[in-house]
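Contributing new complexes? Match this layout with iron/sulfur cluster.
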Amino acid sequence: MGLTGIQILGKLPKKNCKECGFPTCMAFAMKVAAGQAEITACPYVDPKVVEEIAEATAPPIRTVKLGGGDAIYSLGGETVLFRHERRFENPPLIGTIISSSMSGDEVDRRINLYKKLSWDRVGILLRPDVVYVEGANAPLVKRIREELPWCALVLAGDKGNLEECLKVCGDFKPLLYPAKGETEGFFELAKGKGVPLVISGDSLDEVVSLSQKALDAGLKDLVLDPGSKGVRELFEDLMIIRRSAIKTKFKPLGFPIITFPYRYTDDYLLEVSLASLLIPRYASIIILSQLSAGALFNLLVERMNIYTDPQKPLVVEEGIYPVNGPNELSPVVITCNFALTYFLVNGEIEGSRVPTWLLIKDTDGLSVLTAWAAGKFGADTIAEFVKKCGIAEKVKHRKLVIPGLLASIKGELEEELPGWEVIVGPREASGLPAFLRQLQEEIKAKAA
Ligand code: SF4
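Output block (do not edit by hand):
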């Protein structure tokens, strides 16, 4: 984070050609300085300058990438101590252990749980996304890769076995977790294969010393396991690591952290509670002793909440959403594209079992009243959207249900939409099922 926008501008070719996606070199330089654009987006910068700028603007906690293909995960890349200072960047991966020492039935059960445990929440798929493969060997890793292709892998074992596992992984990058005492051999292996490596030790001092050795050996992508002995020490270590990286730019600790909350308790509820504390403070990978639906769902929702950028509202795309298989006599309901509103309204319509056309108008993610106040969900913009979206070709009737909160625009909207009857819906989404059932009967009766 060492260069200002003006300093970066001085290193750009200043063609103002817009190929980077920004209108001027100046605008691009400001975005690069703010960490919102990659210097590589300008094709005309000398590679040496790219390296220099990338180094100077890199976050104090290195971004380490795992996986490959459609399953690429970024760890670290953090720039702040607390979320309210800006935002947290890359959410921690959460998963459990699959070990070569487990029975075949247990391995099957765990793999099946990974497949079964997933939830759609405000359009985001929540599921466990990392497997800690203990005593990793090539057949086990091959099976996990085939059956859980979306999961990142942490492979723990001896060097010989992990070399075989890397052949199975191909271009997919796992995180290597060396058996204790084998660190030196792993430096060469990780560097040669271009995969990240866990640096672990019995104390934070040992981790710092090994991390410095790894840096001296030319390794760039590391993940730290501080080896803390108790819960208090764990959280102290995590705070020291983050503060040292952010406040003093201490390179040996400027890496993501892997954690194992089950090391500190045999009580699963306590383990999950620890995991919930590790999401904001400051784990990049959390390995649980086992997965249970209740625990995992809560951790994933917490993760989503903590790692959602508070400056960017969650949105859904503008368009026509058919719910419950609507036809030409089904009600038409319109609302904004704030994700929470969409999922509440959609959920109530689904629950009502009334076939319905749900129109989602782009309001930049603002909720109904805020969007109306901002001029993004008024009679003119709604009318324009209804005319162009094509709903008139999908239904025979001309009845449009607007949110109850927008009752005041009914008359104006009917003027803007000649031929349409604007019906004021309930103020709360929970009122929709009864409302839609009655409206459906009215539309059918009129058409009969
Ligand atoms: Fe300037 Fe490079 Fe962007 Fe062109 S692509 S406008 S030269 S920063």
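Reviewers usually confirm one structural detail per submission. For this one: Residues 142 and 168 are 6 Å apart (CA to CA).
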